[in-house]
Structure formats: structure tokens, C-alpha cells
Amino acid sequence: MNDDSLYNIRMRASHDGKHVSGGERLVSFDGIMGTVSDLVRRAASRIPFPDDITVRVERLKGTSLQFIAALDVVSVLVPDFETGRAAVSHVLQLAGVSRLAIETAISLMGSGAAPSGSNMRGAMIMDAQTGERFEEDQERGVRVSRFDWTDAARTEESRILSSFGLTHFRTKEALALATKVVHAPGVIAELCWSDDPDYTAGYAASRAAGYVRFPFLKASGDTRGGRAIFVERNRFNLPSLLNYLEKQPVLIQTPGRCSELPDIQSFISIRNTYLSRSC
Ligand code: AMP
Hints:
Structural class: alpha/beta
Distance between the termini: 41 Å
Strand order of the largest sheet: 6-11-8-9-10-5-13
Shape: globular
Bound molecules: adenosine monophosphate
């Protein structure tokens, strides 16, 4: 596939002015019609039916395409969201994020990180040590865009995730987004949980730990959610980071592995064993 034949397709749907569904794909010319109808079908399955569905098809020209491998997925079981948040904090600390920054992110995401008190449309960019935020517009945040799976990698990743019961389309999309994010210059980790009240799962991701998923990072029925991208202050440059996250087309061509662990202690001990062997 060459860059001139790559198309970015974005869908967003709203009801009564509120965002209810969205999605984004990167496809070749031949994939346009099927992808548009998949995304419209996704929006149309929302109840109540959206009163606005917008699909934008944009040809990407002149930007070189980057190919990367998907992060490995580790699914760590937790009984409830309080245990989940304590566990996700461990994972982020192991990646080099301070407790202060983690607590700041969790508290903002749990209460509405936009200045208006609602959910942001995009992600926060946060100093991994101090918790200071760098987004220019804190209502919107940064929208990570232009990433997708190759057809072969998507099929194989779906098969791998399904064998662990991870069949929701959100998991594959979030895994692709997190894979792009942790390859960005200056980024050390990401934290996310959805704003969908029926979807309680969330994750922390880093290049070393992979995509560490927890079934509960919030209570069922909670409409709060968000994303925090943690950066190393002396290694990052805001314009380059925004350019990469928003503009650089990235295709994931190699699926990752998937495993499941009964609790966070197992995650920590496996990681310690691995580190002591590699020293
Ligand atoms: P979702 O997993 O789609 O429910 O999204 C959870 C939160 O992540 C949303 O409330 C937004 O704050 C943020 N978010 C959603 N999509 C993106 C994106 N493409 N880039 C960055 N942040 C996003």
C-alpha cells in the first residue's frame, strides 16, 4: 500500500448535541465503502438512534506511513474498581510515573477533566513527575488520530483477543490507540478508562509493560472517563508530540501476544523475575 492510496475515515454521531458514538479507520481505496458502512452501522446501533451521523473520508497525501507492532496484552483480574485503580497505579509507577501524577490523573478522570467539569473529548498530556498538564485546550485535549490495523493483523489480533474473551470492538481500537501513543516521542505511559457507563474496563500502557487491562477501573453506571498521556518533561516537545499523535499515519502490522493473570501481585512478580534475568 503506498501513502497516496491511504484514506482516513472518521465517524462521529450525536444525539441532542451529545456525542454518542465515534470511530476512525485508515484504509486503502478498496476499503472505503465497506468501512463507511461499518462505521455508520455502529452509530445506527446506538439507542436512541443518533440525530446526526457525520462521516469524513480524507485522502492522506505526502506523509510517510509508519508500521509498528501491537503491544502485548496482559489482562489482570480485579474484583472491583477500587482494587483496579490501586493495581493500575502500580503498573504506572513501574513505568516511571510518580504517585502524584497518577493520583492527579485518576482524580481528574473520575470527576471530569475538562474545566467545565465534563469529560474531555481527547486526552490530557501530563508531566509524569509533577502532574502538570500541557494541553492547549483542556476541554478538548489531544485527539489521537490516523492509526489502524492492517487487515491481516486485525484478523489475527481479533482471534487472539477472542480466545481470552476480549471480543468488544473497543478493546482492539484502544489497543491500537495505546500502541501508537506509547511509540510517540517523549511518552512513557498512558492511562484510560471509557466514559461509556456500561463499559467498566480500562488500561495502563507502556512500551515495557505492554497493554495492561483491568476489567474494572470504574463503577458500572459511571459516565466519567478519560485518557492521560504521561510525558517525560526533558524528553518531549509539545509541537512534535501533537504532530505525531494527530497527523502521523501509523499501521499496526504485527499482532501482539495475550495473557491473563489472576491479580496484580502475579504481574509484579513476573516482571521482577524478567528484570532479574535480563540484568
Ligand atoms: P472511550 O474509550 O472512547 O470511551 O474514550 C474514553 C476517553 O478517552 C474519552 O472520554 C476521551 O476523553 C478520550 N478519548 C476518546 N477518543 C480519543 C482519541 N481518539 N484520542 C485521545 N483521547 C480520546
